[in-house]
Amino acid sequence: MERALRQSLKESQQHGNERFPFGVYWYQFAPGAHVVDSHWHKESEIFYCIEGEVLFQVDTEYIPVRAGEAVFIDGGDIHTGHARGGQGCSFCAMVFDFAMLASAQYDAMQEGLIVPFQERKAVFPRLITPENDPGLLAHIRQMISLSRQPPPGYQAAMKGHLYLMLYEAAASGRLMNRSRSGAADTARTERLKKVIVYIQHHYHRPIRLGELADLIPMSEGQFCRFFKSMTGQTPVDYINSYRVRQAAELLRQPHKKISDIALDVGFDHISYFVRVFRKTMRCTPSEYRKKL
C-alpha cells in the first residue's frame, strides 16, 4: 500500500537525459502562489531562491528559503512550497541523479562519499545559507550560471562542482545524516500521502471534507488542522490549486473550450473556476491561454 501511495506522487518527468541526468529549471511566481505541488522523484534536487522567499516543506519539516539561499532535497523526499511576502519569488531548481557521480570501479571516493550519500548517511545540509555554507552556495551559483548558456564541455564543470561541494561539506563537517526519521513523523507523512493520492484520483468530481477525514480517520475539524499543519494550505485551497494546475495543462490544447475544461477538473461553475484560476495564476484562463 505504501509503495502504491508513493508511486502515485512520483514525478514522471525525465531530468536531462540518460547520458547526462541533470535538468535545470527557472520559475517566477506572484505573491502567495503555491509554487511546488507535493511530489517526489528519485533524483536529488537543489532549489535556489533568486528573489523573494519560499516556505518549503520536506516531509514534516518547514524551511523558509530566502533570496540567496538554497535547500537540498534528498531523492525520494516528498516536498512542496509556496511564495511568502509581498513580492512573489523567482528560483532555479537543479534536479539530478546522484548516480552520475559514481565511479566506474569501487574506489575510495565510492566508499567514502558516494555510497554514504546514496544511503543518506552523509548528505548536504538541508538549508544552505551564506552564513553557514558560502562555499557551497558559490558552487551552486556557478552551476546556475553555466546552465543559462551551456558552453562546450559544461557537463564536466557541473560534475566537478558537485564533487567539490562534497569535499567542502565533508571537510567542514557539514555533511548530514538523514538515514532515519522518527516514527511519529513517518506516520504523519504517510497519512498525508494517502489524502493527497485520494485527491489526485478524484479531483474531477466534488470532494467532501468528510470523505478525506475518514481516510485517516479524524473528525473534520481535526483533519483540517492536520492538513494545514502539514501543507500550509487548507484542504479546499489544496484541491483548488491542484485543479488549477490540471486546468493549466488542458489549456495547452487550443481546441478545448474553457467551460469544458472547468468541468473536466471538477469545477461546477465557470465563474468560480475563473475566480480561483485568477487567484492562483494571477490571470484568467483565457489570458493564460494567450500567453501560451
The succession of helices and strands, N to C, reads HEEEEEEHEHHHHHHHHH
Kindly state the mean pLDDT as a whole number?
Answer: 85
The biggest beta sheet reads: 7 strands, antiparallel
- Low-pLDDT segments, ≥5 res: 1-9
Shape: globular
Count of individual beta strands: 7
SS summary, helix count: 11
Task: Tell me the structural class.
Answer: alpha+beta
CA-to-CA gap between the ends?
A: 39 Å
Radius of gyration: 20 Å
Q: Give the percentage of residues in beta strands.
A: 15-25%
Helicity, in percent?
A: 40-55%
Description:
This protein has 292 residues and is of the alpha+beta class. It contains 11 helices and 7 strands. Helix 1 packs across helix 5 and helix 3 runs antiparallel to helix 4. The two termini are 39 Å apart.
List the topology elements:
Elements: H1 2-9, E1 22-29, E2 34-39, E3 44-58, E4 61-66, E5 70-73, E6 79-96, H2 108-118, E7 127-128, H3 134-148, H4 154-171, H5 183-202, H6 209-213, H7 220-231, H8 235-250, H9 258-264, H10 270-281, H11 285-291
Antiparallel strand pairs: 1-6, 2-6, 3-4, 3-5, 3-6, 5-7
Helix pairs in contact: 1-5, 3-4
Features:
292 residues; alpha+beta; seven-stranded antiparallel sheet; 20% strand; globular; disordered N terminus
Summarize the structure.
With 292 residues, the protein is of the alpha+beta class.
